[in-house]
Amino acid sequence: MDLTRWRKSTRSGTASNCVELARTEQAAAIRDSKNPTGPILAFTSKSLATFLNTLR
Question: What is the rounded CA–CA span in Å between residue 28 and residue 2?
């Protein structure tokens, strides 16, 4: 998975509680923007959709 293209959530604004997302066609990853070298949550595209729908 290419994790070089991280983007910050548009809902983060200027707050320090931010998440970033990296996506490919088949996978995605989420990380804490305050700790870019820390752990990530990795998902298939389908499991990411399920995860996000559960959060809503």
Answer: 9
